[in-house]
Automatic annotation (TrEMBL):
GO biological process: protein folding
Species this protein is from: Caldiarchaeum subterraneum
Family: Belongs to the GrpE family.
Name of the protein described by the UniProt record: Nucleotide exchange factor GrpE
Keyword field: Chaperone
Alphabetized GO MF terms: adenyl-nucleotide exchange factor activity; protein homodimerization activity; protein-folding chaperone binding; unfolded protein binding
Keyword Chaperone annotated: yes
Keyword Chaperone: yes
A UniProt-annotated Pfam family: GrpE
Classification via InterPro entries: GrpE, GrpE_head
Amino acid sequence: YEDLERVVKSLETTDAPPTLAQALQMVYRELTNILASEGVEKMDVIGKEFNPFDHEAVEYIESDTVTVDTVAEVLSNGYRMGDKILKPPRVKVARPMKQSSG
């Protein structure tokens, strides 16, 4: 699903034949609708507190704008169906800056 999403987004910047672009966009929309009708949702996690049970941390960065570990960027989307996580999002986590003792 994510590969198809990347292809559809790349069509905006390539010279793909219009019929191919339209066909791929139609397949992507239809698949998105089918997944939604089955209760599959993309997880919205940017700016939320990092939870190691729900998110897969790929990278940590220090930030002076957060007080707890917070999802700063989504590198790969996550999906859930109800309370069950089908695929955890791969994320970059902002950590509070360490206080210098000095």
